[in-house]
Amino acid sequence: MLEFNLQHSYPGFDFQTGDVQLPGDGITAVFGPSGCGKTTLIKTLSGLEKAQGWVKLNNQAWQSDKLFLPVHQRRIGMVFQDAALLPHLSVQGNLDYALKRSGFERAQHRAQQDRWIELLNLGNLLNQSVLTLSGGQKQRVGIARALLSNPQILMLDEPMSALDWRTKNELIPLIKDVSKASKLPILLITHSPEEVERLADQVLLLNQGRVEQLESLQQTLSRPDSPLFDEQGAVSVLIGQPGKVSDGLQQIQLGDNTLWVKPLKRANQEPVRIRVLARDVSLALSDPKDLSIVNHMPVKIDELIEQPDHRLLVRLRLDNQQHLFAEITQQSAQRLNLQPGLVIYALIKSVALAE
Ligand SMILES: Nc1ncnc2c1ncn2[C@@H]1O[C@H](COP(=O)(O)OP(=O)(O)OP(=O)(O)O)[C@@H](O)[C@H]1O
């Protein structure tokens, strides 16, 4: 568990976290608008910048009234936007460099290397100069190097902001795999709501140098004014269990209900996240059996929230208690006489697997 309370200031910027406790594993996304203090948080937590206050990881003090461990003694695996690899070395050279300083016993080096080389798919890049790697390959090497330094926590500072969407789509599942396999807590700094929705277990919301919330992803997404909602409007992330593939569609089980999506790329039985835009959800009073939309299910209305431009956000609850937003016009809501507590049907026009 990472615990801290830090204060720092730059001219015109006052940074105060208050008491914060981050869980001992899983991915915590640090999210907030530009200039809110995300990088300041990483710099002060890591000791790159000396703040007032205290920091403890797994009950071991990194900083207190009497103590200030330098960055290299804090056992942090850092990955930056530009990977910051050693340019004169090969991929293997970069990994060896991390291992030498790791404190792993020599006998463990091979097993450690093999483990992360395989998971991050670096096997055929080992002899390549890092100068010849693509952006995504560099980040994979950067993550392997961070893991091989034998860290107790990973801090990823905007690791995907310089990558195109295709490369980002390849890296996101790998970061999930690293989280599961390493069991290390991961702090992911990002300004991308999509990265938060696809990766975060919990979200630390920063605003103007203050920690506004530390909560689960589902809690952040359940607020109609969630800072994660951008010009696409409200978003829901449903967590479901993959089932069979039939007629070219993959079954995802959400309690007693089934969603049909494009077949998963990775055949494992881990729960998956499904991202649904509120504007892609329509509502009906009865089960629309003869409709081309394949995904529809009974839901209960939790709340009706007025929006600008005669629109209404309807917070719905599935039978397994997950919530789903629908955005409709106020006119439609009146026509259907929607009220909290009413059981209706959600018609989901489009879903995206957030693999
Ligand atoms: N070394 C510094 N000297 C003076 N001011 C600084 C310094 N570093 C950061 N700041 C200021 O502190 C504030 C927070 O900066 P920080 O880089 O932590 O924000 P951020 O949330 O990471 O932003 P972005 O998403 O744009 O990277 C900003 O107003 C910035 O100008």
TrEMBL record:
<dbReference type="InterPro" id="IPR050334">
    <property type="entry name" value="Molybdenum_import_ModC"/>
</dbReference>
<dbReference type="GO" id="GO:0005524">
    <property type="term" value="F:ATP binding"/>
</dbReference>
<protein>
    <submittedName>
        <fullName>Molybdate ABC transporter, ATPase subunit</fullName>
        <ecNumber>3.6.3.29</ecNumber>
    </submittedName>
</protein>
<dbReference type="InterPro" id="IPR004606">
    <property type="entry name" value="Mop_domain"/>
</dbReference>
<dbReference type="InterPro" id="IPR017871">
    <property type="entry name" value="ABC_transporter-like_CS"/>
</dbReference>
<keyword id="KW-0813">Transport</keyword>
<dbReference type="GO" id="GO:0140359">
    <property type="term" value="F:ABC-type transporter activity"/>
</dbReference>
<keyword id="KW-1278">Translocase</keyword>
<dbReference type="InterPro" id="IPR011868">
    <property type="entry name" value="ModC_ABC_ATP-bd"/>
</dbReference>
<dbReference type="Pfam" id="PF00005">
    <property type="entry name" value="ABC_tran"/>
</dbReference>
<dbReference type="GO" id="GO:0016020">
    <property type="term" value="C:membrane"/>
</dbReference>
<keyword id="KW-1003">Cell membrane</keyword>
<dbReference type="GO" id="GO:0015098">
    <property type="term" value="F:molybdate ion transmembrane transporter activity"/>
</dbReference>
<dbReference type="InterPro" id="IPR003439">
    <property type="entry name" value="ABC_transporter-like_ATP-bd"/>
</dbReference>
<keyword id="KW-0378">Hydrolase</keyword>
<dbReference type="InterPro" id="IPR027417">
    <property type="entry name" value="P-loop_NTPase"/>
</dbReference>
<dbReference type="InterPro" id="IPR003593">
    <property type="entry name" value="AAA+_ATPase"/>
</dbReference>
<keyword id="KW-0500">Molybdenum</keyword>
<dbReference type="GO" id="GO:0016887">
    <property type="term" value="F:ATP hydrolysis activity"/>
</dbReference>
<keyword id="KW-0547">Nucleotide-binding</keyword>
<dbReference type="InterPro" id="IPR008995">
    <property type="entry name" value="Mo/tungstate-bd_C_term_dom"/>
</dbReference>
<dbReference type="InterPro" id="IPR005116">
    <property type="entry name" value="Transp-assoc_OB_typ1"/>
</dbReference>
<keyword id="KW-0067">ATP-binding</keyword>
<dbReference type="Pfam" id="PF03459">
    <property type="entry name" value="TOBE"/>
</dbReference>
<feature type="domain" description="Mop">
    <location>
        <begin position="290"/>
        <end position="355"/>
    </location>
</feature>
<keyword id="KW-0472">Membrane</keyword>
<keyword id="KW-0997">Cell inner membrane</keyword>
<feature type="domain" description="ABC transporter">
    <location>
        <begin position="1"/>
        <end position="233"/>
    </location>
</feature>
